[in-house]
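forwarding from the other thread:

> can someone predict this with magnesium ion?

sure thing
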Amino acid sequence: MASSTSLRGAPASTRQWRVVDIVVASVIAVAVGVLFFAWSAGYSGISVLTAGFPPLAGLYSGGWLIAGVLGGLIIRKPGAAIYCEVLASVVSALIGTQWGVSVLLSGAIQGIGAELVFLLFLYRKWNLPVALLAGLGAGLALAISENILYNALWSIEFKLLYTLFASISGVVIAGLLSWLAMRGLARTGVLSAFAAGRTADV
Amino acid sequence: MSTDYLTPVLTGTTLMRANPVSKLFAAVVITLALMASIDWVSAAVVLACELALMPLLGISVRGLVRRIWPLLIAAGVGAYGTALLAEKTGAVLLDIGPFLFTEGSVAAGIAVGLRGLALALPGIFILLSTDPTDLADALAQKLHLPHRFVLGGLASLRLVGLLVEQWEMLGLARHARGIGSDGSPVARARNLLGQSFGLIVQAIRRATRLATAMEARGFGSGSRTWARESTFLPLDAVVAAVGLLVAAGAVTAAVLAGTWNFILS
Amino acid sequence: MTPANAPSPGAVHIRTRGWGWRHAGRRAFAARHLDLEIQPGERVLLLGASGAGKSTVLHGLAGLLGSQDEGEQEGELLLDGAHPAAARGRAGLVLQDPETQVVLARVGDEVAFAAENLAVPREEIWRRVGRALDDVGLGLPLDHPTTALSGGQKQRLALAAVLAMEPGLLLLDEPTANLDPDGVLEVRDAVVRVLERTGATLVVVEHRVAVWADVVDRVIVLDATGGVLADGPPATVLVQEGTRTRLAAAGVWVPGWQPAVGGTMPGSSGSGYGDGVLLSAHGLGVARTRRGPAAVEDLDLTVRAGEALGITGPNGAGKSTAALTLGGLLRPRAGRLDASPLLAGTAGSDPFRWRSAQLVRRIGTVFQEPEHQFLTATVADELAFGPRQAGTAEATRTASVAERLRLTHLLQANPFTLSGGEKRRLSVATMLATAPRVLVLDEPTFGQDAGTWAELVTLLRELVDDGVAVLSVTHDAEFIAALGGTTLHISGGAGRLVSR
Ligand SMILES: Nc1ncnc2c1ncn2[C@@H]1O[C@H](COP(=O)(O)OP(=O)(O)OP(=O)(O)O)[C@@H](O)[C@H]1O
Ligand SMILES: Nc1ncnc2c1ncn2[C@@H]1O[C@H](COP(=O)(O)OP(=O)(O)OP(=O)(O)O)[C@@H](O)[C@H]1O
Ligand SMILES: [Mg+2]
Ligand SMILES: [Mg+2]
């Protein structure tokens, strides 16, 4: 009985996912997944613009990395970044993007990129530098996988440029924006069930 | 983007009876075969098979194009980008300043374009023929993914279906409180941003509330049973076999044609 | 089947010793000093002023409170001698808001969900689903989508979903708020039927005592400051003169007693606004969506300054849709809605085309779902928001509205953490603060105790006396009567005007 009491009783192991963690992580992921869909549709337009110099499209790629970084920052549980990024990509695949089922793989890889950074700080630190680093991690993961899976026929210097642009985009769009979004959400009081909502200095 | 993207109408009657896991299996096998190589033969074979299977979806060509036009553009652009950036081999086809296209680079571009389309379609197949609840049942019962996550994901999927309605309500409420969508373009943009943020806040709020409601009904710990059994039918063997056949056919054709081009090589 | 319903072996026994709970971020305890013992099979009606902690107690009984970062607990609360979280599945709770507790997409799956979580075998689940749906009178196919349900149907669904757990303790939080009068009795009878069969323990929270008084064995009244105000059989607590006055003073709706309302009955003083027409509708058709079916058609109506109009009708008749249209928020499907120059001033005559800043000064609309309208992070900001937007920052008026609607002690709280009744009062207060000429209120009195109800009526009477037109959608006949206005009855299609 003691064990079941601790389910809701004691401060519960902070590593374990509560139901509210799962549902809120899912909602964030699904909402960002819808955003992915719009972002992917926008990509069709952007890529027309960057057609003169396709590696520039890397600058746009940060949008696909938000789910992992944001989910990780809010939920603060091991696996949150991967879970959110994968679920978001599933949703966008279900709605229909140009990458179909293969986004599952991309999602997992990008999620791992962000997750590794959070793991590096042992799931203890959640400040701006960590958020930016997580964005960078996700950006690098994205660049490497994209270069192998889709840009394979580009020559090497273009691949390197793509990696650079994707990293910048990851830091700014996924890292900075997610951090700002987390802070904004905390300020509304909606994250009161999460450490993110209590420790943010608002 | 409209409601029907979020709550799609299911159309594929035959495919709908198949277990989502078998459809997923077929899609993954085909996708893996496609991803393994960038060449026009394997992509064309898969694409041709997919188009041949299209009638299973019971959707008109026009209906399909309306749904996937962004994918068509993306495929075209991907093809062009590759033609521009790939190694310039073979005879020169076009040379205007920095824009140099050769036989080799154009062939690579065509391969990337075809591959892009072929990659996108399995997702559409699954979308049009799979009920999310069935998918969750199958993932938890057949693939034994953790049920808390599968059901949490399913519940949130439903919440997002309600977002469109909530978006409209939120717009009305903001108008009533005096911050509607009128004024200069800047004011409009700010309002749109504020409303989007409000929507996310509401979605999280609802999710928190929903988690409580789920716990109030005993969700979250211990084992659970399933009211609806996810089963495999003979049809599922067919679906899986077709997936394998298409994938194997594509690889074989590419190898025989000598175009096979493994991405890690 | 004995009328005194012998407790079934599954019925839950409740004991609390000095139990209390303080929500994180609040200084005051939501509930405190509770020493209760409830026998298996007992049926308890839990009363108390709005904000007294009724919902908190139900959450505690359902095992939904407990982790340290959600708040602080004192004393102990035991179900059958065990911690509620350990007695998983023994208690089934229907939350205050049916809208947000739908989990799945199909009616059948939704009802089966709880039974699945309790690892009930498959055949047994479907047997329970069928019976639970029968019990609550929800005769829908199992694959009916849960989005396409009216408010009343959702309330029944939430009840069925909990009944399928076959809980030994049934916890209901205002299960009939927002239902039309027929629906209230139907849902109550459904609960009684189930209790008769299962013998489960019942704790139900409801402000309107009369509905449940005849079917419960015991009434417990929570004191807002902690402890219990009264505890005993309804025949004693609700009838004895001593307790009756004590309860009435605490704002409990005692049957057969009407809270004293201040102000003058509108219309009786002949306030002399004469022909001051503000809004007029001609052949108005209203609909939620641009293409879907119209909810109400052919509505003819004039709204005059200093007039109170009540809009009634069954669930799903289209009252809220009509209210939103009259509030200038939805585009009329057919016919026209005109604002007279008296109301419109410099703006055009079509309220739907007004800009937000113009609208907020002229027509104030309170939505049925209070949370839809909250925009800020504290109650104080929320109250100040409207006047600032309208450019009429009147701090004294705002403060007095907050004071009279008993929100002053909550000024720093987040609007979304308020109790059900407090949320309702805040959403009404935000609209009163902007002082519009026309007020459209959708269910302004749900979840209110007698004290705040009377204060609200008094406030509105004063506004009407000052020449404000008040349109209220409500199932609360006493409220319409107290405002002394005309009634518009909407049912299935056309509106019918019932004069007073
Ligand atoms: N999640 C929460 N966080 C902080 N405070 C809360 C929370 N929920 C409730 N409260 C506060 O606790 C007190 C008791 O709330 P509770 O919901 O139990 O009241 P109630 O008796 O059910 O009222 P009502 O009749 O209005 O529903 C209120 O002052 C409320 O503002
Ligand atoms: N957001 C919505 N989108 C589409 N249809 C809706 C929406 N809300 C309600 N409806 C439908 O419009 C009709 C009228 O609903 P409305 O909310 O106006 O009823 P009501 O009279 O206010 O009911 P209640 O007493 O339950 O509040 C109903 O049939 C309802 O199912
Ligand atoms: Mg309550
Ligand atoms: Mg309504």
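The CA atoms of residues 121 and 418 of chain C lie 39 Å apart. thats all i got for now
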